[in-house]
């Protein structure tokens, strides 16, 4: 029965995202009403119990168990851009015995062991399957109840959340004691309009958001963090690839090199962390750039980014809101903690967010503190939400499953390690003529990367 499914939309509080989640909720309820069925429960994760870590889902299991453990059969999770055919979803879930423990989804796996999964299953990484959230994924209520019980006796470790879909699958599997992911062919990530989707209960609708015109080139200020030892090898890559897409760009270093040119902010280079340098960049953005520049992007010198696509993405955000955008990680979210934007994939700030941050007293506890984590802590204390976009990437294309990247038009990747960064940029991030003209999804030959 439809009323036995609880829908959980993995939503966010930023106005662009919460509106999309509300639209999806309305669509699910309308489909249910059109079927003449009793309406199911549809919840938005960002509205749940003000828990900073609600997006990591496991901390909510006990609430789910208490509230829905008796009268429901399934909890179905999806993203704001997942599109659901309610009738087909009902049929699909109906094939599984809801009194057993089931973990259902579209399976992803690593082709080679990867740093973002702590090199798990290094012998044969393809054996471990984890769900692509974009296709939707489901837990049967007996499994939810079991997880809730486990969480009661063994609270979550206060650890890093890096790739949630992989970490949830690991937690459910419990080193072989819990169920593996069961792949469901009806959970799809093909485009809604694709000819392939006739059998699908779910599809995916948004490869790169665009809301009207892309923001102007002059409205994005790009700050590149570098240091003297990388002037020779990393900066030339930026110049050969994405620098030409940026109208306003400055390189910040511990040494003023006129040939690049770099700006010495008077902060000595640190081997890690760079908090002092990042806060100096934020101060400079407020005090030296044109007060009319609404957006700031801070990247590393080995970040590969498409400013062209970023300008499209930013058309969906209101620069009058405090926006802090990028790839979201978490720290200690099982027990409080905070979310943060991981620096390597690029950190995007609206000017208002920078103003609010610097007006507060929140600063680095040391020059070499991890800048991205300190920023996460500060914004969390200010009540300014972290906004996640899966189009930013802290690692290289080869570190992500092909199936996951297949429904993205990516904005960034990071690291030059063991790859040809120029080739990666031109394969994955360079605007093709077709894309520049009409913004359509483009086919690349990415197989060799």
Rounded radius of gyration (Å): 22 Å
> What structural category characterises the helix and strand content?
alpha/beta
**Estimated helix fraction:** 25-40%
Figure out the total of helices: 13
- Large-scale geometry: globular
Number of strands: 23
For the largest beta-sheet, the strand count, sense and barrel status come to:
7 strands, mixed
How would you write the strand order of the largest sheet? 15-14-13-16-21-18-22
The rounded distance between the terminal residues' Cα atoms is 45 Å
Uncertain segments are: 439-449
The overall pLDDT average reads 93
What share of residues are in beta strands? 15-25%
Q: Could you explain how this protein is built, in words?
A:
With 449 residues, the protein is an alpha/beta fold. 29% of the residues lie in helices and 19% in strands. It is built from 13 helices and 23 strands. The strands form six sheets. Strands 15-14-13-16-21-18-22 form a seven-stranded mixed beta sheet. It has a six-stranded mixed beta sheet with strand order 2-1-3-8-5-10. A three-stranded mixed beta sheet has the order 4-12-11. β1 (5-9), α1 (15-34) and β2 form a beta-alpha-beta unit. α2 (61-68) crosses α4 (141-153) and α7 packs across α9. It is globular and about 70 Å long. The termini are far apart. Mean pLDDT is 93; it is low at 439-449.
List keywords for this structure.
449 residues, alpha/beta, seven-stranded mixed beta sheet, six-stranded mixed beta sheet, 13 helices, disordered C terminus
């Amino acid at each position: 029965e439809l009323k036995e499914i609880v829908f959980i939309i993995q939503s966010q509080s930023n106005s662009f995202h919460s509106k999309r989640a509300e639209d999806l909720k309305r669509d699910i309820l309308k489909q249910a009403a059109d079927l003449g069925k009793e309406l199911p429960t549809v919840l938005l994760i960002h509205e749940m119990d003000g828990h900073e870590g609600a997006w990591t889902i496991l901390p909510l299991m006990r609430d789910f168990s208490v509230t829905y453990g008796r009268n429901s059969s399934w909890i179905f999770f999806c993203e704001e851009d997942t599109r659901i055919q309610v009738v087909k979803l009902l049929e699909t879930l109906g094939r599984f015995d809801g009194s057993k423990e089931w973990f259902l989804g579209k399976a992803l796996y690593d082709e080679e062991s990867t740093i973002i999964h702590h090199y798990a299953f290094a012998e044969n990484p393809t054996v471990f399957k984890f769900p692509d959230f974009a296709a939707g994924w489901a837990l049967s209520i007996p499994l939810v109840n079991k997880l809730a019980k486990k969480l009661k006796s063994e609270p979550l470790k206060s650890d890093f959340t890096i790739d949630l879909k992989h970490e949830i699958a690991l937690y459910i599997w419990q080193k072989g004691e819990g169920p593996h992911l069961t792949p469901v062919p009806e959970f799809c990530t093909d485009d809604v309009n694709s000819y392939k989707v006739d059998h699908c209960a779910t599809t995916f609708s948004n490869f790169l958001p665009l809301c009207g015109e892309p923001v102007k080139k002059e409205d994005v200020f790009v700050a590149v963090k570098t240091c003297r030892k990388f002037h020779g090898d990393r900066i030339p890559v930026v110049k050969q690839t994405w620098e030409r897409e940026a109208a306003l760009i400055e390189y910040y270093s511990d040494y003023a090199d006129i040939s690049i040119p770099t700006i010495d902010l008077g902060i000595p280079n640190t081997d890690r962390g760079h908090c002092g340098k990042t806060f100096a960049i934020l101060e400079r953005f407020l005090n030296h750039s044109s007060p009319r520049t609404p957006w700031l992007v801070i990247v590393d010198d080995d970040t590969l980014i498409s400013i062209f696509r970023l300008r499209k993405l930013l058309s969906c955000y209101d620069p009058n809101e405090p926006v802090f955008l990028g790839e979201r990680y978490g720290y200690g979210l099982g027990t409080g903690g905070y979310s943060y934007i991981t620096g390597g994939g690029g950190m995007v700030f609206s000017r208002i967010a920078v103003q609010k941050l610097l007006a507060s007293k929140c600063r680095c506890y040391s020059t070499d503190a991890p800048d991205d984590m300190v920023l996460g802590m500060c914004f969390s204390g200010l009540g300014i939400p972290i906004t996640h976009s899966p189009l930013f990437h802290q690692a290289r294309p080869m570190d992500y499953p092909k199936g996951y990247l297949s429904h993205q038009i990516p904005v960034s990747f990071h690291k030059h390690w063991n790859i040809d960064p120029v080739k990666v940029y031109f394969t994955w991030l360079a605007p093709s003529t077709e894309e520049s003209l009409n913004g359509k999804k483009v086919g690349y030959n990415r197989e060799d990367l």
